[in-house]
């Protein structure tokens, strides 16, 4: 294995999958892992084998790759717009159990036209902005209006509510969803599914009462952002970037062959671009595309040129999106090269 | 063309190539474009056709892709370490005029062993840290010691000095290189090449007297970082990310289908994640992988769901590294799909 390279410790992956699934099994919430973290069909099938009800994708081409590999239940949490994408969505719906989300009338109209014309029926959830400030209707009344529109639109079935939650206030998220669900029920509209998500919220899922389904991606690998938040340990991190020390220009500076093309520029609130295993006080202070600059001022570690190091990235998901292949270290120690089949799928 | 997608305006590309080449032709400095920005063999060949003396690559696999396409003069500005990479470097040296850089003894020893054993000779430049704080020897004396080592190492020829310069103080860079060159000459060692670089420094290249060669990448596309620095205009930016407005959750919020998987998280000192053409006061305040959140508070622009927009990214180079293909808009208006053949090459 030459560096830089992405190594996946499959012993940790198997443990992470089992632990999360048993958590949701215990509280009776369906678990629908988000494949954005691994983009690898074999891992999606392992998640389903362990008990997941299906998978979550963000884009149609990600879902196409997963269905090609045998996944048969997909939720695409995205507003699908435009004739080409709608045509592909119809084709996909013929090959698996499919649901999508919408937070606006234009999306619902497009879905309805495409599925009516194909003689098919599509399950649609209404996306709710419960505080994260991304997509989603802003009020329970907004959710009601779209639920009604979906319910009366030919080719569509209203399937429930979905949110990408604000991670730091799950009670507010639960309260938002609970109120919206009540407003819908007062209007005679049932919610088959209330889908929440997020890895940071995973261990607090039992605190919520409204969600019937949880989506999470990062938990399968974990990353430095979760370690720093106290939500997992270093030994729960399955994905590492393997790098080599290529320069030691000064006593306190090392340069490694992993830059933003390997680690990404994602800081997501942290300082530095990753955690070097075995040298937590070494700071990756700067990245250019092929270089990482490491400040050794605060540690005793003095690596030699040619030394291999192992880095837990700040955010695992975009790292998977940079490489065509990853290396699996299997429990028996063997190394397997595995394609990241849904890498670069954004459409 | 579905969104998100990367569109290249070839009229602007042709103008950017011609403008930079004529600048270096005028001052008699060789120009060696860095292919990291486009990673596309056809553009490398256009740069050479326009007068470039060859190309710069950071990694061997990038160079392999370029040589496969017909490029015959390559400088790899990187410490090459490890037997596998050295074996590949030897193979590459048989197919083109090749030079590399080194800033340490270990790298020089490895290169010497590999090229001696292959019965070949490799040109090696000493990398100098002239203020950028990345790789490079720290002093003229350090450069002299490595130049001597290269000069006496079988299989290697000392070829000169190279720096990745500190962009904001070209006079200091020039002074550093001038002193080092003098120290070498005092010791009877001539510098065939003194290679500097950078797009931000491009228009000030005539101010330096020591460099005989300049390397630059971003100039071929330009990007928001150069617009904000006053170094080019919006109409000089050839690469744009094409996106669609997929949600309008509030009066002042739009969400687009380009996130960090299209625009990257690179801020490189800027605020916001790109410049929306035609709406410069709209701020892309947040990215997740497939969503960009746009704050419309400071502008009158109120896009509709389904509207297409065109975004100049903060940093063009890592955007090229995210996509397997880009779309060329040719001067006659036709659109061509072009593979980014060296995407993901990091080894």
Task: Outline the secondary-structure elements.
Two copies of one chain form a homodimer.
Chain A: E1 5-9, H1 10-27, E2 30-31, H2 41-49, E3 55-57, H3 60-68, E4 73-76, H4 83-93, E5 97-102, H5 105-118, E6 122-128, H6 140-152, E7 156-163, H7 170-186, E8 193-197, E9 213-215, H8 224-228, E10 239-250, E11 253-256, H9 260-263, E12 275-276, E13 283-287, E14 292-295, E15 308-312, H10 316-320, E16 325-329, E17 335-339
Parallel strand pairs in A: 1-16, 2-9, 3-4, 4-5, 5-6, 6-7, 7-8, 8-9
Antiparallel strand pairs in A: 1-10, 10-11, 10-15, 11-14, 12-15, 13-14, 16-17
What integer is the average pLDDT of chain A?
97
Q: How would you classify the quaternary structure?
A: homodimer
Question: Structural class, judged by helices and strands of chain A?
Answer: alpha/beta
In total, the number of domains of chain A comes to 2
Shape of chain A: elongated
